[in-house]
Give the backbone structure.
Amino acid sequence: MKSDIKEQFTVCDTIFSNSDIDYQLLKNAKINKSFFAAYDNTRIVNSFLFNFSKLQDKIGAKLFKKILYELKEIDSFSIPMLDVLNLLEKLEIIETATVWDELREARNAIAHDYPLEINERIEAIQLVLDNYVTLKGIYERLKSKIINNH
């Protein structure tokens, strides 16, 4: 496995480790209007949402094509994202190509965070919490696929 791929995995592992802590805190919390009154809760939410976006960027923009290239599934990095997703589906790294679209929708929901619209914010947080498990599963399958082929 190439060193740049190893480095990306190390970075993602660290971010996932930190995100897992925030994820558990948020899953165990009753997230409602009063939840946001405590600064620590807002900090945890912001940390988790930032890391979710960062992970999705690193996995989608940095790892997918590098892994497919390493596995000799592609011979160029200029392949369209839809083709990348279809190859990842074929390799059973993602369930369907639309799963990645759903993750992007979750990310877009938090990008348009409206702090004064508490119900919308709570829905966006819940959406990301639900999709975090999916993102982590994709990452673990991606990592397993490259490790098992080397």
Summary: The CA atoms of residues 73 and 87 lie 8 Å apart. The chain is about 75% helix and 0% strand.
